Each structure stands twice: as structure tokens, then as C-alpha cells.
Here is the input.
Amino acid sequence: MHTVVVSDLHLSEAERLDPKRPLWMAYKRPEHFIDDDFARFLEHVEAETEGPIELVLNGDVFDFDNVIQLPDEPEGTVDWLARARGLGSEEWMSRFKIERIIADHPVWFRALGDFIGRGHRAVFVIGNHDLELHWPSVQRLLREALGVEDDDEALVFCAWFYLSNDDTFITHGHQYDPLCAVPDAIDPLIEVHGRPRVRIAFGDLAERYMLNGMGYFNPHATGNYIMSLWAYVKFFFRYMVRTQPFLLWSWFWSAIVTMVVSFRDHLHPPMRDPLLVEEKVAAIAKRSRATPRMVRQLAALSVPPASASRPMAIIRELWLDRAFLLVGVLGLAWQVVLHINFAWPISPLWVFAALAVLLPPYVIYAARVKSGVFSKPLLDEQRAKLIHEITGAETVIMGHTHEPVDEAVGPVHYINGGFWSPAFDSPECNQRIGTQSFVWLRPTATGRREAALFEWAPGGETPAPYVLPTAQPKRKRPSLTPPRLQPKGA
Here is the structure.
């Protein structure tokens, strides 16, 4: 079977133009949607292929964290935080969000529904930004939007991985990222204040509570929101000083909320019925085309979330360490002057002399702190070896980082399929960052399938082999001939 893998589309609600803030979340406007490109892409893949196609939507297809609209008639309580930053992850909230996404992306849903209706198969592998796909009612709404019956296996939802054709292990990759990993991939629900909700990882909470309130930062490109202090200052005065002058306050309280919720949710045990443990594992295994043993072994490969294993990493990512330390430096300088003043009356202006001594070490520390986002590869040789031993897969495909990769890692051929979500180099959304890439696995005469990375350029009509940047170090790849793109029957 031909398998096509696409990840990180980040479909969200459409943002309407605000005349007072014309650049606010401009990346979410309909003119930047990838829906038409995706529809042409499916048509081309179908025209190039004989027989049924397996389309794997490998995580972050939807971005529940980026939906900030509120219902006119909510089914439950909408607290102050939801009003400020968007709904949480209770089931009715997730249903409302997917309804908004479906309503704003008719072209995308029509294209995928028609694709499935013509006899092809779609597999949703759940990622970190679409964790709310775990709710059965959300899955039913998607089936209705795509015109697929509940018991039709032409549309499948997989918990966090999928084994295609027994030769390819496909996972979004967030379970190998401490900032976005979920503590229990098998049981992702927790109970907070007596109400079940999906446990959301730190990285996604940061988007919900911070970036949703600072709409000039595009969450689809890390370079848009992870900057140096000087870069933040320039960005503020260029884009935000008139429309969001109290940015520091917005950042501070939302960072505190992100930290508190992340640590609080970690303390809640997963909602797990001990009488249904084996049934749940068996159901995950069936949908993922694996065995229950594989499910348990692969779950054990997940890294501990930073909220449990590296709390200081979370505080550093939020810049709260530098904020608290700066407050301490200012307080210490004032205390030094006060203590001296008891023995020898001096002017309060001497506080600047104390700051001249205390600030240089602070500046040195602040300059040395680096973001840990994607600081380590999702797949190292040890993890690749274990995945190969557990599943027998020769190829491993991931997404999550938005960085296309095609190389050999240990015993497997590793490909990161890149991303499709619109990312730009500035709030004006004039210059696109990256391209739309995907993975195509094709059968060969030898019985093996060959996997290759391709580019579907925005606005394009045909794909082309993806050329990796020369700056990226490349290791020796397996001796597979890359598939040729040619018309059917040529």
C-alpha cells in the first residue's frame, strides 16, 4: 500500500480583522489557510497512485490550544481564565472548539471526506496540540463532518503512534519532548474540581495562556516567540507599544498561570479504571495495528514531562527565573543602602552604585540561559534501536519539530515530515517560513517500501523531492533508491 504522511497542519479557527489591531493573529486569517493546497495535494497523490492510499495525519492536524472563541450558550462554567485565553479541555469545550474548526475549514473537510469516500483510508495520530481528539464525542463530530460512519475503519484515531504495513513506525514525536510529553499516553484524562479533562502538557499551556494573549507572536515558528531580550525589546516597540503597552504585565500573569497549572495538573493522577486497563490497551493496539505488548513497551519509551523531572526548565522557559532574580537584585541593592544608612547617613541615590555592582552578574546569567525547546533530537540511536526491536520497523516517521529531517539513526531510516501550518517571519505575514513537506512510502518490486521526503510548495500544483539545507549535518542513509514522481502509466 502507498502511505502518505502529513503532520503539523495546525488547523484552527479563522481570525477576523480587528481594525484597531490589524496585525493581531494575522497568521490565522483565511487568506493564509492551507486548505486549497491540501485539496490539490490529495488530488495529485490519488492521480499518481493505483489502488487504495493510506493517508496518515501525524499529529497537530488541529490546534485546539489556538482556539479562543467562546460559545454564546456554554454547556458548563466559563471561568475568567477561559474568557481571557480560550476554553480548557473538558469534553464539551473540546466539542465546541472542533465545531469552530470544522465551520471555518469547509474546503479541507470536503477534500478529505471525498478522498475517504473514494475508497482511501485516513489515520489520525494524536499529537500534543490535538490531544482533545481523545474525546469520543469529538471523534464523532469529525466523522460526521467527513461523512464516515462510526464503525467504518476507513477513518481511525490512534492514541500516539501507528504501525503502517509492519515496516514503518509513525508517531508525532511529542512523547520524546519533555516540554510537550504527556505523563500517561494510555490514560490522558485527569479530574480537576470534580470534572474530567484532558491533561495538557506545559508547551501547549504556554500557547494557551501566553501566546493567545500576545497575538503578534506566531506559535507555528519558534523563532517568532523565542528571542533574546534585545530582540523582544525591538519587537515590542515596533509592533506592540501602541496596541499592547502593558505587555510586561500580560506576560507576567500568564507565565505564572502557565507554571501553576502545569505543576498542578501534574499532581493529579490519571483517570484509570483498573477493570478496563487491558481492554483500553487492546483497543489502542487494534487501532494502531500493534500488539498490547507493543503498546505497553512503547508507552515506557516516553520521556518524563518537564513538570515532573525538570521544574526549573519550565521556570527558565517562562523567563520567570530572570524576573524573580531581577526583583531580588533590586531588593538587595535597596537593602544594602538601607543598612549603610543606619550607620552612616547617605543619599538614596547610592542604590545605583549598588546596582552597578550587582547587575553585571545578573546580566551574565541572563545571557547564558538558553531555551531548551528542541535542544535534543526526538530520535537518538538508543531510542531508534528500541523502537526497531519492539516493532520491527525499518522506518520511523515523526513531526512536531517543524524541521524536515531525512537520515539514518541507528538501525532505522528516520524522516521528520516537517509541517504545513502557515509560519511567517513577521506579524505582517509577507514572507513564509519553511515549506509544506510530506513523506511518501511506495512499494517496490523487491517487496520493500521506499520512504522519501517531498515538498508541496505553497500555491503549487505538483510535489518535488525535498532538498535538505546544506547546513544540516547528514549521516549515511540506507541504500534505498528514492521514488520517482511520474504520471500514472508512464
